[in-house]
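<given_protein>
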Amino acid sequence: MAVLLQIKDAHKSYGDQVLLDGAEATIIDDVKVGFVGRNGAGKSTLLRILLGDEELDSGEIVRHPKLQMGYLRQHDPFNLGESAHEFLMRDSGQPDWKCGEVAGEFELKGAALDGPVQELSGGWQTRVKLAALLLHEPNLLLLDEPTNFLDLRTQILLEHFLRHYKQACLIVSHDRDFLSATCEHTLDLTRGKLTMYSGPINAFLESVSEQRERDERTNASVIAKQKQLQRFIDKNRANANTASQARSKAKQLERLQTTEIAGDEPTAFIRTPIVEPRRGAAIRCEELSIGYQDHTVATEIVLEIDHGERAAIVGDNGQGKTTFLRTVVDSLPPLSGNVRWGYHCDVGVYAQHVYTSLPAEQSVREYLEYHALPGTTTQAILKVAGSMLFQGAAVNKKIAVLSGGERARLCMAGLLLGDHNILVLDEPGNHLDVDTVEALANALVEYKGTVIFTSHDRHFMRRVATCVIEVRDGHVTNYGGDYEAYLYAVNKEIDEGERERQAGMSKALPGRRPKSVQRTPKRDERKIRKQLSKIEKTIARLDQEKTTFNAQLLQETDPEEALRLHNELTRVQSELADAEEEWCELQEELESAF
């Protein structure tokens, strides 16, 4: 297997913050790697370095001559009025049938494919961008937190695609289910060092936990031995008869060292407000309609959530999950109907429209002191700040200089200092690393109040949700099952859709849009089948040549030979496209004529 990319002795710092400290790693073709590490460890910075958007302070990135990276950027690349199909053809340079094939992998069809792409929701536009990225056929695909902006259905579609994708991938994500489903290797960035683990995320986390336990047992043994030696030294160094033994023990003590444990890094320990359990309905929606003046999102919502429930709000992007949450917390007025909270409900809200509008002039500490209950001690405030990774001088940082992730954690910390018995959380796991998401899930499971939340993280949803509210096709309804049942239903629906799509394309090459041909008089069926057989052999030969040339190009380092192979590959691809076109025309003639 060819080495696509090597990171050698990489160093990168921002002031006193060291992100890469002699980091080294190797990425080979055909391997899918999950890239993990704490928030702020430097994962996104390393991706930018690999893409050429930033430079190392020292060290080297060695790239294969034929390395072609693909990266999902967030800017809007669409032209005014163009359809998704037109954009895919323009952006990739691929023929229409190929664009249709890849678009079909993400359920882009009908109006979603042929209508104006800028009129699609953000979730569907993301599907279009993913299809465009994959049409460029990169041999190293970089995805930075894809589950932060992909809805459940698109995540599953992307997983299905990646399982059959034959090229290398480097995927940053805190979603264990997504990494487990797509990546067979794990790359960890901790304290500036890169470590490649030959196993999926769950095996990696289990290995880390076991190693930490071993290190803790070893350290306990070493510390006990150190204390024993120190007692001997203290007792005998002043005695002339035993001074030499004391000196010998002192040298032995110097050689005894404890192991630095990775888990000693700051870890978020999250505690939710302590509230009294309550019974009855926490919230009722009565004939509720939600949306905006020029656009109704959902109507006739009749819904009840009981105290103590942890209700997961689910649905595809663009269906109205956030609109529903904003309406129930009175951030957005209802179009009609009523939202009624139970008596003595104290609602705390964590949502993007909240944590992006924090007072810029306040410091972290000032913000938390303002939101803490009267009588809360400074020690308690600093403890909560530390649980959200604001430690030491970080508590004096102004909100104006905080990153999006830091603001999100600060908003969460402010909620924890209150006494809210209702928590409404819109994507609480975004901007949080794997350990912090797990700590949040543990805290919410123990919380005695009511939680209404959205998330794209399936592991988090499975851990926390006790009921599922689905927003779909203009309605908001209680799904009537747990999250596992909902996940099963979505997977089944996608599998059935893929089978229908494959069945519908069984009369031609997948996704093919053959050109219309002028009907000719009927020919002898045997002659057509003979010609089809001949072309099929040609396609098989050309396809093998294409595979061979691709493999040689990945390993070739001589520029002249690489140019020759590239020209040969271009010729073969052209001949292959012509042969496939002829095969489609003959197949259509055979089916329509006989």
About this structure: The chain has 19 helices and 18 strands. The two ends are 48 Å apart (CA to CA). Confidence is low (pLDDT under 50) at residues 507-522.
